[in-house]
Structures are given as C-alpha cells and as structure tokens.
Amino acid sequence: MSGTAIVLYFHVHQPFRLRRYSWFDVGRQPHHFDDGGNAEIVRRVAERCYVPMTSLLTALAKEHEGRFRCAFSITSTVLEQMSRWAPDALDGFLRLVDTGCAEVVSETSHHSLAFLGDEDEFRAQIEAQSDRLEATFGQRPVTFRNTELIIDANVARIAEELGFRALLGEGADHLLGWLPTSDVYRPHGTERLKLLLRNYRFSDDIAFRFSNRGWEEWPLSAAKFSRWMHEVAEDARQVGLFMDFETAGEHQWEETGIFEFMRHMPGPLLDGGRFRFLTPGEAAAEIPAERDLELPFAVSWADAERDLSAWLGNPMQRAAHAALYDILPDVRRAAAGGRTDLLEAWRKMSTSDHVYYMATKGWTDGEVHEYFSPFDSPHAAHVTFMNALDDLARRAASAAREPAAAVS
Amino acid sequence: MRVLMLGWEFPPHISGGLGTACKGLVEGLAVHDVEVAFVVPRLHGDEAAVPARLVDSGGATVAQVAVDSALSPYASSDEYTRRATAQGSHAPYAADVIDEVTRYAEQVRDLIHQEPCDIVHAHDWMTFPAGAAAAKTAGVPLVVHVHSCEHDRSGDDADARVVRIEQEGFDAADRVVCVSRATANRLRSLYTITPGKLCVVHNATPSPRSEPAREVTPRVAEPVVLFLGRITAQKGPHTFLEAAARVIEDVPDVRFVMAGSGPLLPTIVERAAAMGLARHVRFTGFLRGDEVDRIYDEAALYVLPSVSEPFGIAPLEALARDVPAIVSKQSGVAEVLSNVLTVDFWDVDELAATIVSVLQSPDVGRDLAAKGGVEARALTWADQAGSLVEVYGEVLA
C-alpha cells in the first residue's frame, strides 16, 4: 500500500456512578448506583454529543461515498444506559454502522482494569463485549483496545489469543524512543497481532487544544489541520487520531466550532490524494508490521505520565482495586448459583472511573465536606466505593454460601 | 439571675462537644431559675436572619442572639481564613481569626446595652475578649469556662497569640471554670492564674434524644468498634488505626467505624488504606442527632483514644446508650467514671488488647455498659449547673 492511512477512532463510555452510599446503607440498601444522576448525564451527553456527532459522521460517510471511514468502541455500560435512558443515541450509532464505513472495536465490557486484577475476568469481559457488539451492530470485532488505551506485553498476548487482528495503543515517547508512531508494530511475543499507535500530537490538537484560546495555533481550521498533516513524512504508514467520542460537543462544546471542524476535516485530506481513511481492522489487514516492539511496562493515554498512576497511584486506589478483586471468587460462586445480578453489579463497580475519582494527583482542596458525596473529593469517592463494596461483598458471600436459596 | 453567655456554637449546629455542653448547661441552669441569653457568633442558613428567641424542648428559655461573624469553634487560623474567603469578598469579615475575635468583642460590647445581665460567662478563648469587654462595660463579674486550652488543641504548635488571649481572659476573670481536675492542673502549670480563681465543674450526660434501640437482627453481623469525635490529632485517630490493625490479627471479622469530620479526615482515610485496613474501617463523615443514636446503638464498643481530652462527653453518651467504653487515661471524663476501661493514649498494644478482650468476652462488655450506664445517667446537667450556680453566688457575693 502506498500513501498514508488516517485511522480515526473514537471511544464512547459512561460509567455507572455510585449513589451517595453511606455506612448506614450497608446490609440494607441493595442498589448501589445513582440511576437519576446517570440517566441525566447520559441524556445530556446524548443531546450534546452522541446524537449530533453520529449524525455528522453518518453524513460524512455518505458525502464521501465510502472514502471517509472511522471506528469506535462503545462500552457495555454506556450501551445499557442508552437503551434505558437515551435510545436515540443508540439509533445514531446503529445508523453510522449501517453506512458500512464504521468499524466497531472491542474492549472490556465494563471499562475495567481486569487485566491487572484477574485474567479470567479480563477474558470474560472481552468475550462478553464482543458478543454484545456483534448482537447489537452485526459485526464481530477484529480490533481490541484496552481500558484507557493501556497496553503491555500481557494485554498484547491475550488480545492475540482471543483472535484479534489489531491492538490500539498510545504512541508514548517513553515507549517508542526514536521510533515513529506511524509504523505498524508487532508486539514482541505475538505472531499475528498488529499494534496501531495513537499520534498524540494530532489527536490532542483536536481533543484538548482545540478550544484553548491561549494556544498560539487557535483557532484550528480544517485547512490548517490538513496542512499540518501533509507535513508528515511521506513514508508514514498511518496517523492514529484516537480520542474520546465525547470530544465533540461534551469536552469541546458546540460553541467552540468543533462540529464545523469535524464536518470539514476529511475533505482537504482526501483531496490531496495522499491520504486514505482506514479503519483499524482495515489498516491491520493492509499494512505489514515492520518491526517488533517490546512492551516492557504498561502505557496508557492518560495524563502527562501516560502510565497507570491516574487509577492506581495512591493507597486508596490500590486498596479499593485489591478489595474489589478479593470478592470476585464469592461473586462468581453466587453467579453460578443464579445470582448473575451480583456479577453484573460487581462488574459495574469494576469500571475504572471509580478508582479514577479517588486520584489525588493535583488535588489541593483540603476542604472537608460535612456529608460525603461520591464526587466531593477523592477521599469521599473512596469511602463511598468501600461502603458499596462492603455491601456487595456481604450479598455475594451469603449467596455463595447458599446458592439454592439465592435463586428464589 | 440573668447570665449573658457567650458561646461558639449551639445545637443542632455543632462540630464538637462544646455546643453539647453549652446546651446541657443552659438546660441545667433553667432548673435553678437562671435565665440565659446565649450569644452565638455565627448564623446558619436555617436560622432566622434576625435575633430570635427560642424555646427548646427542655423548657429552658434560650435567648439566642446571633452576631454575624465567620467564627467557628475549633477553627485554626488557616481554616478560618479559608472559610472567610469562601464566603465572598462582599462579606464584611476580618481577614485574620484574631482580628475577628476582636471584632466579635466589639459587637458583643455593643450588645450588652440590649441584654442587661448580672454575670457574663464566656466559653473558651475566642469569646474571652468579648466576655471581658462586655463584663467591663456592664460592670458585672466575668466567669470564663475552659473546655480546652490552646495547648490541648495544638500540642507543641500552640499559637502564641491564642495563648495570650487565654491568659488575658484568665486575668480579667473572677472565676476560671474547668471541665476537669486534669484541665485545672494543666492551666495551673501552663498559665499564671491567681490562686482561688480556678474551680472544676465536670460536664454531664446529655439528655437522651431517644431510647436505646438494638436491632434483634443486626444489618451487619460483625461487632462494630466505634470512634466518634472530631478527626483531629488531639483525638488520637492514628492510635485508633494502629490498634485496629492489631485487633484484626485476633478478631478478623470486625468493623471499625470512624464517625466525625475534621481537618485530619483525608489523611486518616488515606492512612487506613495504606495500612491495609480499607476493608475493616468505615467512615461516616459528620453525624447529627438520630444518626449519632443509631451509630451508638449498633456499636459493640466505644473507644476514645484522645491524646489530650479535657473532658470528653461522647463516652457518657455511649454509656447512656448501653455501649461499653474505653477512654484514654488522659481524658477528663475518666475522673467521673469507675466502670470504664482506661488505657494510656500512647499504648497501642494495651488498647488493642483491651478491645480484643471486650470483643471476645461479650459478658464483660455488657457488665461494663450496665454499670457505666447507671453512672452516666446519674451525672446530670441539673446537678452540674447547681455547682455552677454556687460559683455565680461566690462572685456576686
């Protein structure tokens, strides 16, 4: 293949946020999640982002007659929220897939850190997610992305064992050294898997800097973006534009002109003749992997550190993560005895957002609020999570002891 | 007899034991026909914006006169500055807590003309300048009441300005009432106080809000060891965690519930996680009224490991709700109780062993709770207020 592929990939996710769950609720209140708040948020994001953005991407696919292509991953948690509270958003994604120009990417069903906690659970969540995507969108995913784009040698090995063709990762400087993000890599230790990396400069021009008026390049137009892209080395194989789907309309509000940018971005790139839009699965099929790449440590797309410190950086986060996986054996026994609702509740608590809320990086507000709300402070998030987990642990242990009684 | 009483807080808006003690005193004084005009320095959203006369359930007449100020009990200078800043630039609050104490004193001195009294009674250092100014203006005796001194609250980091205000209060006062003998002894060694001014009136057990109610089938199976108090270094939260870590080696199924808020809460939450106690230690944040009753009713044991505790009302509340208590030997409440377990605040091994012994021998706990409960219920605010009335009589004579 000649020319340079543009791999445009979006991540769609909403967590099931916990309700205000106190010690007094433990053993008494079986429902741990804030249905009202979660419904409100997914409806708002649907209105601002999911509905207009899927409609825009669908229009681009039609306008460019198949030459505009993109991919997205969409967690089971947000799929459940859409089907319960924002069905128009789900319709938007279905219409986008119907164009034949969008690839659906797999991941863990619940946006979890299961690859660190329990390998069987990791595999189970991926299989569940691929099944759900196939049932919803009619495509069996061939591309895998791990939560927060975290990759290491283990993730690559398992992705290959599960039959994926492509793995998405962060093109982090400390991983690549002098190597380019644009090559297609073979993760060391795998035989068929191809690793496509995110070009963080171009991706973050859109995802983070777009609305920053202090940025010397503000405002960013589609023409300027195309000019920059054309400065990429001629022999570059691919440019990975990976970002949250919520970039358009939620992280960057409509008023910033983000939708206009997205609408006009593909035209000048396609006009030059040099670029082609490919989905990750297509890129992995067409572009040979030229180099082995060692993945000796975990790399993510978060923060300046591009590591796991946003989720497991402090004792509260590590303790919550450890406690979560400690109760998994009981939860599994309960599920085997019919209490699959407890496994689902556990999986909703395995969503990485919960430990992310406990991050103290950059947290300077020493004010202690009188009542804990899950989002008041990292400490309140930890306390709330541990209360809810304490309750879930009791229910799971009791159901695991008496599986027959638990079914009734 | 009419007393102008200067406090920091009044229930339900309390952040520690001081407000509880003031309420008990006011109720107790009513039994002795003493009328109290109670001034609090801080308005809350659910109070009338104008001075209001309230009648509480105990039948005591409380003239609650609110002076608009950002003062709050237990506030360090830093906390005060943050709170005043948070209230916005339009608020006419002084920038420093010491200035605010002075401003409060000026307001109270003006107030004295509307609130004629026979005695001015000021609770703890932030009201001392106000008390001194009001007593001088009115030409009546001044009683200052020490629930804790700066050395109790801040240990070695005592703020010299606060210590000076305390000393000036003791100089201006006709009597210095202490909540325990231990406090009187500390004041004697740390301040210069004219012999004969110091006297002790212990706190008493608050009147119960409800009858103790134990659930027949508790919602959690494990015993609950309760810490209830402000999360500050003074209350010994680190000692509580260290003891918890040793207790779970012998009694793995136990929950340590830390109820209360305070500047050290984030540190303690992180510390519990770092010590591997995240599964055993639960935090509730600040609790009010019926939640406090519920937390006692679910507790197998109450622990007050204070480094420095001039009195400590919470163990009395616990005992009155049939919860056995362990208190540090350094707490004033130990002076008025026989049926309570005591340990040195620094002796983590002893504290852990004592907790384990109560958890493993429920009969011991029940016996302590029964006998301690009798003691606690016998310690009434009416009796303690009677002692205070004697002090009033001495200064008026």
Task: Provide a descriptive summary of the structure in words.
The complex is a heterodimer of chains A (408) and B (397). Chain A is an alpha/beta fold and 408 residues long. Helix content of chain A is 47%, strand content 12%. Chain A contains 19 helices and 10 strands. In chain A, strand 4, helix 6 and strand 5 form a beta-alpha-beta unit. The longest helix of chain A has 29 residues. Chain A is globular, with a radius of gyration of 21 Å. The N and C termini of chain A lie far apart (60 Å). By secondary structure, chain B is of the alpha/beta class. Chain B is built from 14 helices and 14 strands. Chain B folds into 2 domains: 220 residues, 3-Layer(aba) Sandwich (Rossmann fold); 155 residues, Glycogen Phosphorylase B (Rossmann fold). About 8% of the residues of chain B have low confidence. Chain B is globular, with a radius of gyration of 21 Å. Chains A and B meet through helix 14 and helix 18 of A and helix 9 and strand 11 of B.
Summarize the structure.
The complex is a heterodimer of chains A (408) and B (397). Chain A has helices at 35-63, 76-85, 87-98, 114-117, 119-137, 153-161, 173-176, 200-207, 222-230, 258-264, 266-271, 280-286, 309-312, 315-326, 328-336, 340-349, 353-356, 378-401, 403-407, and strands spanning 4-12, 70-74, 102-105, 143-145, 166-170, 185-187, 194-198, 238-244, 275-277, 291-293.
List the helices and strands and how they pair.
The complex is a heterodimer of chains A (408) and B (397).
Chain A (H helix, E strand, L loop, with lengths): L3 E9 L22 H29 L6 E5 L1 H10 L1 H12 L3 E4 L8 H4 L1 H19 L5 E3 L7 H9 L4 E5 L2 H4 L8 E3 L6 E5 L1 H8 L14 H9 L7 E7 L13 H7 L1 H6 L3 E3 L2 H7 L4 E3 L15 H4 L2 H12 L1 H9 L3 H10 L3 H4 L21 H24 L1 H5 L1
Parallel strand pairs in A: 1-2, 1-8, 1-9, 2-3, 4-5, 5-7, 6-10
Helix pairs in contact in A: 1-2, 1-3, 2-3, 14-18, 15-16, 15-18, 16-18
Chain B lengths: L1 E5 L10 H15 L3 E6 L11 E4 L5 E6 L10 H10 L10 H15 L7 E5 L4 H11 L3 E5 L3 H5 L5 H13 L2 E4 L2 H10 L7 E3 L23 E5 L8 H14 L4 E5 L5 H10 L6 E5 L3 H9 L3 E4 L9 H7 L4 E4 L12 E3 L4 H13 L1 H17 L2 H16 L1
Parallel strand pairs in B: 1-2, 1-5, 2-4, 5-6, 6-7, 7-8, 9-10, 9-12, 10-11, 12-13, 13-14
Antiparallel strand pairs in B: 3-4
